[in-house]
Amino acid sequence: MINALNEKIEKTAELITEATNEEFLSKNTIEAINFEQKLERLENGTFKVGVVAPFSVGKSTFINSLLEFDLLSTSILVETAAITTVKYGEKSKVEINYRSGERLVLPKEEEPIEDIADLKQQLKMYTTINRNPDGEGVKVEEEIQSVNVYWPLDLCKNGTEIVDTPGLFAQYSGHNEITSEILMEINAVIFLIDPSTIGQANFMRVIKEYVENAKRSTIDGTGKHIFFAINKIDQHPDSEVTKAYEELFKMLEPIVEEPKVFKVSSYFGLIAGLYKQGYINIDDIRKDETIKFVDDDGFPVSGREIQKEDMEIIESVSQISQVKESLEQYFEEKNYYLIEEALSALKRACELELQENEETEYFLQDSLAGDRIEFKKKIEIIQEKFGENVREIKKELEREVEKRIRGGASKNSFSLLRELKKLTEKKIESLSNDWRRQVQKEWRINRFNLTSHNAEEIVGSFINYVDLTAETVKKTLIQEVFELLEKQMTKIIEDFEEKFMNLEKEFNELFYELLGMKLSGGTLFFAHQELINQVKEEINDKFKGNSAVYIQTGIDKKINKERSKAIKTVRSKGVLNFFKSWVGKGQYEEYLEEDKYLEGIEKVINLFIEEMYEEVQGDILSIDTELNNEAEILAENILKENVINNKISAYESWKQSQLEKLEENYQKSEAETNESLIELEVNKKLLNTYYSRVEDYYEEIMN
Q: CA-to-CA distance for 623 and 431, rounded, in angstroms?
């Protein structure tokens, strides 16, 4: 799925590893630029794709078509119960994580896999709703937290993970909450939809709310990570699919930036993938009565008429490859900066090393006729003055950070915490009031269609809608706080750029004044954009870890109570029964007073909305307090640790090490100096050749 990007990541990682292994770069430069961290970020990244769909839309078949392997259960009677994540593993195994904290791994270490089908059957047992009539066995939805499936699949080889979520409109009430929660943890989400449901008012409202919820899982809120696939196009007329596509696109346009909607056949995609991987042959496909398509000349093709060359048509009809390409493009756009950042750092390291080689060569030649005692004194002066400058800028930046986070003496001075407080105070009232109006409007729509026969279904659907919208409101606040945090902290880093440049400039000027060698201008060590990227990454990581708490309610009990109150007992008709009632032997019947029952439901729901409104307000206030505390800690950690201590300390250590090395070289004997000059010349040629390769690859990547 993300092979093109992974190839670039691998090539970049190889170049970095080569530089360190072949010793093109000194140990000091490698440590100063922190290549270990850059390699880790390049190689250990994961791309989680979540698939969300209502029950029986073909979610498991769709995932299998992405994997090109028949792994997950595809029975129409099966409903996913536990979050199932498919990951790469050299050996096939299933890891079951229980809510109690226990973990079960199948097969056990002492039990080798003899039958893949048996392991798949066990996977089905642990990831789907228990439908045993007597209720025995594992109650998956109650006992199991998540399931990880490790399988040697090419798709997942380089960090791609596929997350199979419990379905929308699920029978198990907790599934909507689980699905909403997992949206915060994934990098991309695919909503899989049956064309026949598009246009249904309730379905469209709920899907729209889920999309709004998914938008809150990224700070930018554009929804670029959200994809839509209209499934089973092989089972519906083209006109119906086209109409569904147009209606869905129209609904999405106002809420998602450039909606990505695909028309797919998961089953055709799975068949094409299995054939490509050699799991089935052309005769297997010919015998499949569900495989029917129209060839390039407009003739229907099925059964014995299917030829090997027709597999391209089957794959093309499925459009699964288009979904994969779109995911790959999104992932590349989202993570391209990692490659650019690593290559920029590699270029910068080469330039620093070449500069250091020039300094070394200059002073080695100078040492042959220079005053070694005088040179040592000058180095000591530079070290002392440079140390003072570093300590001074650290104190200055710490004062500035404190001022930017908490504000100065003046009430009008900028303060990150004050800005966050102003935002949350403004949002708390408006978010909760807008939410109440939204759910009241939704209930009026539901109330119009309410009867005693469908009350349970409508109320259940409405409660799920209320929970989902309440979660969206809380996520909205979290999202906007982190968006402001990212914006303001990026601005602080930008304002610090000049101070970093001045530190390097002062060192270069002092170096030239005392030692007579002019160093190249500009800042080579402090990569401004790299610092900004790291700040954004840390804020995004923290944002992904925030999620509002779901509100539980005993609304079902209240509805049942209203039903009981609306049941009236009356004597059965008939003269004989009339006389029997005189002696206490008459027969009686119960019937539901519908108007009274519906009035009772109306009261319960209105009370429920008000109680939920108060709880939402309370939750938002709690989130506000927690976010402000987190923002303060996060800002201090990022700015003081990453910017001040880590980066400036690394620069100081690198420069002091260079000065010590210069002094050491200056004290060498004439024979040692000449030998060092020859060795230096060889290293310069090797480094220049390597640097040219890095530059060429950088240009290739950028273009």
A: 13
Give, as one character, the DSSP assignment of residue 518.
P
What end-to-end distance do the CA atoms of the chain give, in Å?
22
Given a contact cutoff of 8 angstroms between Cβ atoms, the answer to whether 302 and 325 are in contact is no
Judge contact between 112 and 196, C-beta under 8 A. Answer: no
Contact 310, 357 (CB under 8 A): no
Which of left, alpha, beta for 159 (phi over 0: left; psi -120 to 50: alpha)?
A: left
Q: Which two tokens stand for residue 160?
A: 């791609």
Cα–Cα distance list, 216 to 17, 180, 241, 479, 549 (Å):
38, 10, 29, 6, 15
3-state secondary structure of 230: strand
pLDDT above 50 for 177: yes
Q: How far apart are CA 390 and CA 396, in angstroms?
A: 10
Q: How many residues does the chain have?
A: 703
Rounded Cα distance between 180 and 166, Å, is: 10
- Hey, which residues does 106 pair with through a beta bridge? 94
Query: Are the beta carbons of 588 and 567 closer than 8 angstroms?
Result: no
SS3 percent helix, strand, coil of the chain, rounded to 5, is: 65, 10, 25
Q: What phi and psi, each to the nearest 5 degrees, are found at residue 134?
A: -85, 0
Single-letter code of the amino acid located at 478: I
Looking only at Cα atoms, what is the longest distance across the chain?
135
* pLDDT tens-digit readout, 85-129: 999 888 888 888 888 888 888 877 666 555 567 767 766 666 665
Listing DSSP states for 131-148 in one string gives --TT--S--HHHHEEEEE
Helices then strands (H, E): number in the chain?
A: 22, 13
What local confidence, expressed as pLDDT, does residue 78 receive? Answer: 46
Q: Are 96 and 147 in contact (CB under 8 A)?
A: yes
Name the more confident of 554 and 379.
379
> Where are the chain's structural domains?
370-564+595-667
Per-residue pLDDT, 468: 79
